[in-house]
Structures are given as C-alpha cells and as structure tokens.
Design goal:
Keywords: Cell membrane, Membrane, Transmembrane, Transmembrane helix. 46% of the residues lie in helices and 22% in strands. The protein has 700 residues and is α+β, with helices and mostly antiparallel strands.
Amino acid sequence: MTGETTKRQFSIGFQTSIITVFVGVVLLVGLTLVYLSFARVTSITRTAASSFIEKVAQLGADHVDEQFKNVRDNLEILAGLQAIQKPDIADNARLYGLMAAMLRNNKQLFNLYAGYEDGSFIEMDVIDRARPAFRAGLKVDRDAAFRLVVISRTAGAAPVTQYLSETLIPIAEVPGPTDYDPRQRPWYVEAFRNDKTLLTGPYVFYATGEPGYTLRTPLTEGRRGVVAGDVLLNRFEEMLGQQRLGQSGQAFLFNNAERIVGHPEMSRLMAELPGSQDELPKISTLKLPALVPIIRSWREGGPAQQFFDDEAGRTYIAAVHRLDTAGSADIRLAIVAPLDEFYARILRERRTLFALALAFVGATLPFAFWLGSRMAEPLRKLVEETDAIQRFDIAERPRIHSAIAEIEELGRSVFTMRSVVSSFASFIPRPIVRQLIETGASPHLGGSRREVTVLFTDVAGFTAKTERADPSQVMVYTSRYFAVLSDEIMRHRGTIDKYIGDAVMALWNAPADDPDHVVNACRAILACLAANEVLNTEFRHEGWPPYETRYGLHVGDAVVGNVGSSDRMNYTALGATVNLASRLEGLNKNYGTRVLVSAAVRAPAGHAFLFRSVDSITPKGFAEPIEVSELRGELALASEAEIAMCQRWDEVFAAIAQDGAAESTLVRLSGFLHDYPRDSVAQFHARRFRNAAQETSAEA
C-alpha cells in the first residue's frame, strides 16, 4: 500500500494514554476540593458571623433595655417621693431639686413630669437636650438651663412657667399654659390600661414638637396620677452609635410600621424627610433595598439572622432583636454590618487559599495540556479525516501514524476506507449521498407520506442546442450547469432527487424537516436564475450556447422514501404533487414564462415574493382547477413599476376569470397589451380570445 513502511514502528499500549485522563481527574478533584474548602470556609464564616451578630444584637438590646430600665427606676423613685404624692406641688424647692438631679444623671431624658387626676401638672425640661429651635422659640436668657411648668389645680393658682439656671436660680417667669390637660395625653391614658409596657409612642411632644417616646409609671400611693419622662428620638443617636459593628455597620430601632424610631444619624434622617416632620423615616431610606424583605421575613417567622447583598454585590449580615421593655410599643433593634469588615482576616485567608490553589492548578495545566495534545493529535487528525470522507472531500492525504498501537491501526483503516470511497465516488451522486448521511435517512426500502415542495427544471431547446455538438463537450458543460443549479438548491436547504437528462428534480422538507420549505424553494429558484445568467455569460464567451432554464414548483403531500430493490435504491418522492410540479414546468413553454408555481406555493410565500396570476388549469388526476402563477422575484427587491404591472395584470386576469370574453374584459386586456406589448402571458390570453372568436364565427 502506498505510504506503508516496511519497518514496524515502535508501539505502546493504548492504556498509556490513561495518564492524560489521570491528570484530568487530579485537576478535577483538586479544583473540587478547593471549591469545597472555599464553600466550607464560607459556610463556617457565615455560621460564626450569624452567631456573633446574634450575641451583639442581644447585648445591644440589653443595653437599650438597660437605658430604659434606668429611666424606669428613676421614675419609680420619683413616684415614691411624698412631695410627688402630696397635692402641694407649687413652690416646692425640694421637689424641684430632686427632679433636676435625676435629669442631670440621666442624659437620655429630656424631661420629667407628673400629671394628676384633678388636672394638676408639674414638668421640668432640660432646654438644651431638644433641638436648638426649641430654645430659640422660648426666647429666654442663655443662662436658663431648666424650664419648670407648674399647674396646681388644688391651690387655685394660675399656671406658671419658670426658667431656672443650672443651680435652679430663677431667671425668668411667664404665665403657664392654660389649655393643657395631662389627663388627655397618651402617656396618661395608657398608664392606667391593663398593660405592663413601659413606653408610649412614638408621638410628637406637646412642648417641643419633636417625636419621641414617653416612659411612664402610675402612682400607686397618695394622689392618683402618672409620673413620666420623655426621651427624644435624637437622644438615641449616641447610644445607638456605640452599638454599631465595624466601620460601616449600623444599629437602629424600628417599629411595626417599618419606621426608624432610633438611629445614630437620626437628625440627618429627619432633616431629609420631605414635607411634614410628624412622620418618621422609613427603613428604605437606609439605601439597603434587601433589608426590608429580610425584616418582613423575620416578622413572619423567618430566622433572626440573615444574609443579603447590596446593589454593589457586597454581602451583609442582619440581626433583629426584640426589646423586652417595649411591650406593645413593639420596638426592635436591628444590627446590619458588612461581612467582610468583622471577618476580614478570615476572608483574606480564604482568598489567599483560593488564589494559591488556582496558581497550583494553573501551573500544572500547561504540562497536562502538552501531554494531552501530543497524545490526542493523531486522534484529531483521524476525526478530521473521517469528517472529510463524510463530506466526500477525498483528496489524497498521507497516512496518519501514532505511537499508540490502537490509533495506528485506526489510521490504517481510515486510509484504506478513503481509498475505497475514492474509487467508488465517481459512480455515486455525491450530493444525494452527502445529504442522506447528514440527515440520517434510513437506507432501507419504504417511505412515508409528508408535505414536500417539489421542483422540476428543464433546459429550453436542449436537444436542438446539443445534438450536433461533441458528446464529451455536452457532458462537460451540462455537468457545469448541473453543479451551479445543485449548489444553489442545496444552499437553500433543498435535496437533489435526480438528474433526468437535462432536467433536475429537487425536494424541500425531505429528508430533513424544514418549516420554511416553500419560502426556501422560491428563494432557491431566484438564486438559480441569477447563477444561470452568470454561467450563460461564461458559455457565450466560450462559444457554447446558453442554457435557458424553465422551472415548475408545487407543494403538497407525497410519498417520500427509498424505492427500488434491496441492492439498488433511489431516494425520491412519488404522487400527484410530483406530477403537477412536472406539469407546471412544461407549461412555461405555452405562456413564455420561466417560473410557474401553483396556488399552494403562492399562498404561504406571497408575503415575501412577487407573483402574478397566469391561468387556471385542471390537470389529469385533479378534481379541482389549479391556479397557476408566475414567480417574478423577491417582493423587497422589486421595483414599484414591476409591482404595479403585476397588480394591474392580476386585475385584468380577475376580469378574464369572471367575465370571460366580455367586451369590457377585452378592452382591459387590450389596454394592458398597449402598455406592455411584449408581455407573453397577456399575449397568450389575447390569442386564446382570438381563437375562440374565430371558432365561434366558423360555427355560425
């Protein structure tokens, strides 16, 4: 055999190539372990973060509760004083001193006050613990540290408001509010309900117009009444700022309405609120969109610690904890922190581990790739060789050799197969075999019924053009002609069924499914017309007569499959659909047209191509008349004049079909021929009318 060497080459067993597979497995296992380690570290980090932030949230909630409890303890002490329990609250310097001392020791408190069932009321405020606008609205000396309001109903004295210095020295005195009734305030009403909650609010305070909470407790001895103290929301800023986690963490208080009731930057959030300041900022103002769904999930029974990503992809952990002292006020503490801040070192180590693992894997990949490529190179060449044989690309190539014994044998077999195929390729129609191989059509006898588009072509005057020519030349030029048409048909998903002399029979939607087979067939015919014109130009230059081709196209059901004998088969289509396509091709000679199609073709392709009606025929085997149309070109490429001509002719043809030889129809036909004297279809119908008129005259 050509190319065979007499000396046997060194061969090794194919099992040696398993090394490549082993390297691949090692890499796969290594990367998998790295990934699992990465995932495990991530899981451990998240578990630790979840546990840690829960403890932080618990401590934070305990701290906030402790602040509230300290206030509550001071309120209970105040409620136990006889000066509060006795009816005389006016001019009670000792009581004023105790209230001022408690306010000094509880910086979160804005004021302390007591209301009684007879409408009496005493209140002491720390002026500078409210917003600056509060002091400005009072218009008092800057040395005033406390505001004291006394409404004594028992003494019958008028309400009075005093401004006291830090040492409780009176600085100014003005009339007190006459319309204020503590018994109508929320803190007084709720204190006597069957509710053990410590808080009332949040609501807007009467004195400052600022939102806050009231901590209150009812008097259990002496006069019936309530002792209370106000905590402004802005006083939570420093307290919550101490609870944050990391550089970017946040700790804030919120209620059931998803409103923020305490935040380290509460003043800024309140200032950014549009319109009325009676509302509290929503949680959504924190610009963490995923936080609100997590809080809602927690409220519906979800876990108290959850992870989420912000818009930039940064991972956060959030924890929510209820405040024990809030009671029905239903305040919760939320802590949110980026995971990478308080577990930064673990995350850095995780990234380092992952980077090292990737570096190791990356360092081994070149060697594995080199070894695999060397071993796979003969196999790749054999695959390319078998693909080329399948495409009938059987040019002479050298035999493929390999050090692996099995691949060496395979190379010899492929070389032998190519030689055999090359020997028989001259006798087998390559396009048909290629398409049958690509589509996987069964080679056994038999077929099935399916819708197909069938094309028949024929060269006008072929016999007259070639009967005196050299037969070898006829075969050469006709083969070139068939090659041009076949290439265009197959390029548009058609199947060459057979060559019949100078004719071609082609199918669409068989053997492979083609949902656009009618459109593809029409487009293939137009491509064949264009390619045929180019080829005819070459034939004229070479002194060979041009091949003017006529086409007939029809779509319908046919029996498609292999016919013949067990040792000689032909893949084809049979039935009336095939016969009608052949009949349409032959009718071109009558009408002087190039491409005739049936109404079954025009209907699905009319949106893409320009057609015009030609005639109505009743071929043998068909019960109903068949409308015949001429394919003129693609609609998108047609000129306005061409479209107008076809539309005008269809109107004339409609009149012919409806009125026959009526005088008005003849006038319209004559007018059309006047404008288009060379139109062969119009000339055909004019001749038909003249012949009919002559026959009528002869009978008369």
